[in-house]
Amino acid sequence: MAAGDKKSLRASVRLAQERYESEVEATREARRRAFAEAQQQGLSLREISEEVDLHLSRIGQIIEGK
Predict the structure, then answer these.
(1) Is the separation of the CB atoms in 63 and 35 below 8 Å?
(2) DSSP string of 4-53?
(3) CB within 8 A of 31, min separation 6: which ones?
(4) 26: DSSP letter
(5) pLDDT-derived band of residue 1, with 50, 70 and 90 as boundaries?
(6) In Å, how far from its chain's centre is CA 14?
(7) 29 is in which domain, residue-wise?
(8) Which residue, among 16, 7, 11, 54, has the nearest Cα to 32 in the 3D structure?
(9) Which of 12, 35, 45, 52 has the fewest Cβ atoms surrounding its Cβ within 10 A?
(10) What distance in Å separates the CA atoms of residue 18 and residue 24, rounded to the nearest whole number?
(11) For residue 60, which phi and psi values (nearest 5 degrees)?
């Protein structure tokens, strides 16, 4: 494999990883906002936890941004 080909492939995998990390972070933030909004609108942590099958303490952590 030519050096230029490797350089291009390395750049490609780096870009793919950067996109992945960006999308994961955006998805986490969207989930946090949705949980927080649901709580503000009257759902309890227990009700949210039942909907997403996570422990209610984890729901609280997510809302707090942990």
Answers:
(1) yes
(2) HHHHHHHHHHHHHHHHHHHHHHHHHHHHHHHHHHHHHTT--HHHHHHHHT
(3) 62
(4) H
(5) confident
(6) 19
(7) 3-64
(8) 54
(9) 12
(10) 10
(11) -60, -40
The number of domains in the chain is 1
Which tens digit of pLDDT belongs to each residue from 4-30?
788 999 999 999 999 999 999 999 999
Lowest mean pLDDT across 1-5, 19-23, 41-45: 1-5
Report how far apart the first and last C-alpha atoms of the chain are (Å, whole number): 44
Tokens standing for residue 61: 């952590």
What is the dihedral angle through the alpha carbons of 58, 61, 63, 66, rounded to the nearest 10 degrees?
-130
Confidence of residue 3 (pLDDT cuts 50, 70, 90): confident
